[in-house]
Amino acid sequence: MTTHGDETAANRPGGTGGQPLSSGSGVSADELRAQFQEQGRPGLAESRRRDLRQARWTYAALAGLVAVVCLVLIVVRLAQGDAAGVWVATYAVGVALGGWGFVLARIGHTRWAMMVTCIGAALAGLGDSPAFR
User: Fold this and answer.
1) 0.70 exceeded by pTM
2) DSSP string spanning 68-85?
3) DSSP string, the chain
4) Contact 97, 115 (CB under 8 A)
5) Could you tell me the pLDDT band of residue 87, with boundaries at 50, 70 and 90?
6) What residues contact residue 6 under an 8 Å CB cut-off, 6+ apart?
7) pLDDT beyond 90 at 5
8) Please, what is the angle between helix 44-79 and helix 86-106, to 10°?
């Protein structure tokens, strides 16, 4: 049975003999990157990127849906002959917040996008309340 101090350099990961890999050791950055990527789970970084991309698209789609629904509600209510009033403003703010949520989601600010989109949807719900009919 050997102790940690008795191991040879060939038995250690990377064959470095336990010495730190620095720029002075003659190992290039590409070799260091390759050694690092061999450690742990190789698909972890790609899985994380895929999950983040999926979250951005999901929040962007939700924000776009809120904006389109608000626009459709404005058109439908005006076509029914409802007088323009506060409900138009609440729907218009819902459209604006939905659009802003879409932009935020596309640039990666998914938490802000979800918050802005929820506020826009809540305003659309308020504009559809009986008080504004």
Assistant:
1) no
2) HHHHHHHHHHHHTTPPPS
3) ---GGG--GGGSGGGSTT----GGGT--HHHHHHHHHHSS-TTHHHHHHHHHHHHHHHHHHHHHHHHHHHHHHHHHHHHTTPPPSHHHHHHHHHHHHHHHHHHHHHTT-HHHHHHHHHHHHHHHHHHTSGGG-
4) no
5) confident
6) none
7) no
8) 160
